[in-house]
Amino acid sequence: MRAVDRVLAALAAAGVQADVRRFEEPVATAAAAAAALGCPVGAIANSLVFEADGAPLLVLASGAHRVDTAKVAALVGVRRVRRAAPAFVLAATGQEVGGVAPVGHPAPLRTVVDVDLAAHPVVWAGGGDHHTMFAASYDELLRITAGEAAAVA
């Protein structure tokens, strides 16, 4: 099953009626996605996988800023949080860097969801590849990921 199909299945299983968009050109960055969707870059939920003392940690961060890894480490109670290598991301999510979705992974990931995303009535997240995005509300992202709301910037 393709990564996008796993994401769509996870959304359907969670009862999310997502607006899914597929693009001809890759939308692998928040800026590219915002431009393609005609929305503010802050409404893009970057699905960033970090290595937190060896375990995968998914941070859904607003595209408008960078994640403060020291702040996130303190928040989740680990010594160190660092950006995961592409092979680590693929193993943890079944998806490639630049196309990681909040759901559709082989196993649930501990997730932190940026509170700054709540400022947007519609948030766009990766759909499992470099060409697919889906829309959800902030509350839906929290629910479908069992995520913890936090300031991550």
Brief synopsis:
This protein has 153 residues and is α/β, with parallel strands linked by helices. Helices cover 28% and strands 26% of the residues.
Account of the protein in words:
This protein is α/β, with parallel strands linked by helices and 153 residues long. It has helices spanning 3-13, 30-37, 69-76, 86-93, 138-145; strands at 20-22, 44-52, 55-62, 81-83, 110-114, 123-126, 132-136, 148-150. Strands 1, 2, 3, 4, 5, 6, 7 and 8 form an eight-stranded mixed β-sheet that branches. Strand 6 (123-126) and strand 7 (132-136) form a beta hairpin. The longest helix has 11 residues, at 3-13.
Reconstruct the topology from this structure.
Blueprint: H1 3-13, E1 20-22, H2 30-37, E2 44-52, E3 55-62, H3 69-76, E4 81-83, H4 86-93, E5 110-114, E6 123-126, E7 132-136, H5 138-145, E8 148-150
Features:
5 helices; eight-stranded mixed β-sheet; 8 strands; globular; 153 residues
Query: Main beta sheet: strand number and arrangement?
Result: 8 strands, mixed
Strand content: 25-35%
Order of helices and strands: HEHEEHEHEEEHE
Annotation, overall tally of beta strands: 8
Radius of gyration: 14 Å
Q: Name the average pLDDT.
A: 96
Per DSSP, the total helix count is 5
What spatial form do the alpha-carbon principal axes imply?
globular
Uncertain stretches:
none
Separation, N- and C-terminal Cα atoms: 35 Å
The residue fraction in helices comes out at 25-40%
Helix/strand-derived class? alpha/beta
